[in-house]
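Moderator note: this is an archived Q&A kept for reference. The question asked for a predicted structure of one protein chain; the sequence and the answer are reproduced below.
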Amino acid sequence: MSLAPLQSINEQQLNARSNVVQTPVKSDQTGEKLLKNGKRLDQDYLQNQNQHQQPAQKKKKEKLSSLCKTPPSLIKTRGRDYHRGHFLGEGGFARCFQIKDDSGKIFAAKTVAKLSIKSEKTRKKLLSEIQIHKSMKHQNVVQFIDCFEDDTNVYILLEICPNGSLMDLLKKRKLLTEPEVRFFTTQICGAIKYMHSRRVIHRDLKLGNIFFDRNYNLKIGDFGLAAVLANDRERKYTVCGTPNYIAPEVLMGKHSGHSYEVDIWSIGVMLYALLIGKPPFQSKDVNTIYERIKCCDFSFPKEKHISNEAKVLIQDLLSLDPLERPSISEIMDYVWFRGIFPPYIESTVMTEVPNYDKTLTHQESIINFRKCLEKSGLIEDSMNINKDPVSLLGSEVDKKQIIRTNILPDSLSPGDTKYKYREVMDLEAQRKLNDLAREARVRRAHQAVIRKDLVATSTNLIKSEISLRILASECHLTLNGILEAEAQKKMGGLPQSRLPKIRHPIVVTKWVDYSNKHGFSYQLSTEDIGVLFNNGTTVLRLADAEEFWYISYDDKEGWVASHYLLGDKPRELTRHLEVIDFFSKYMRANLSRVSTFVREEYHKDDVFLRRYTRYKQFVMFELSDGTFQFNFKDHHKFAISDGGKLVTYISPSHESLTFPLVEILKIGEIPGYPESKFIEKISLIKEGLKQKSSIVTVEQTQLR
């Protein structure tokens, strides 16, 4: 709710009704008038509105705030009386009045009509707003003073911010200078970091909800849409906010939800609006705004001067993927903040354009920036402020039902993560740090998408817990080998003398999934044929001898292999060998061999398939010698062997090549086969290994 600037008044004026009692009309030019009647979007409000409108009438819908009657000139509470002053402003839910206590202190009273609180859900929302705001103690958050009620209204008493809001400033000035916006953004970020440290998401950050105190410092207000997370992994699903400021995941993430990143998005919208003069997705039509937000359709007008550093920060803040947006600490590390930075905001800010570029040196700006960081709580330990997570009222909120004269529980009325400031003078070095941080965020976001999409559709039964631990250990070892190769690539690679020796691995050349009846059959590049039976056992028929292995699980050893000659086979395994022969004939008649590899002299031990897992994107084979093979749907195949040091590529036309992984990472593709898209696929390979390395019990396997 945007408050009009407070005018100084005398005693006679204090109880007089203002001449500006009419509802302020919010200007379309600045982006606040985004729904009919200037309402912000909120599902609960819309439901409440629909419940109480009369279908037969076709008159214009009224705001819930219109139900709020003007408070009496003398508001009596328990032990304290307040005198009503000027009407200050109005939002979709409440009206705000200036009031004064007997000692002469002036406050702002957010007034909510009891008639608008028709359901227990609406009541709980109001109590939640009060509890969250009451718990906030920060120099850049509007201070909560008290709350009380009379027969008609609930009053939320707040610190008075007499100099208007950022929206008022933008209306008067049209656009602001970058030094001013640096100062404002730092104070806003201080408040947001504090809120997030207490697991509170504001969800309605906009220029009209950020106010100037007496000294023109900024304070965030209006916690009507704020939410508390039970833990940092929890997501919220309510579609809420003011259209121009809503993050794309709020609009599109009805199933995936949203979290702290929605407030980061709002910072980007506000930054753009202050520097350009209007929000980035501005349109007269709300649906057009939403469509632009969903595809992040915005640009920087050529006629508006804005530094490249500011553009970079805004573009990162307005990343479509929430995980690609910088954290508050990362925001403060951006090069843009190393520009001219004022020590404070002048009282003439509403009417005059300051020229800090001519009055401040770079060194003075660095000192001013540091002081602003300290005052805003962005350099921790400088302020002894409450950082415990917010706890909403539990049973006390729930136990008291709607009573017309008792909305508020009695107890609502009253009687720091490390951030180390670094003084960076080398702007080029700082730009490189920003770029590295951005690359890391993009990489994490990409992995998160892969993780979400990588779901196993089938795998073979493994009954032994020690076997699962062995498999998890092998996955972990190979994953670490890949990560080590990536680190070596960043350092320029390895000298020729330190590159691993090329050894072609044993790979799966044919396979048939017949698990709906017998099991999973495969042929190796050694020509050995195996079947993973549905009961968890394996029979491996050797190609170069009349022999076979029978492999079963053991609670102490993992796998136990028994060796037999075909002529001495146990009677109970006769049926197993018949199935092997069936699959052998089928694969010989119907399947082509996918690799040119054969048995090599260094292949000393017989190898069998320990586990296969089918995903939408690929099939993953885990062989007993520690080789991992990935057959992708586009018929490109990769094997990772030698603990992650070697990568083997098998093309759709069956060419088979092995390379040191670090060399392929340096080149960025398989030589001669750019269509294999190895760099894209290595991310999927890493995620597959990561998932499997975390499964260490039979129960966990069944759950997955």
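Archived answer notes: Residues 1-39, 44-58, 395-404, 416-424 have pLDDT under 50 and may be disordered.
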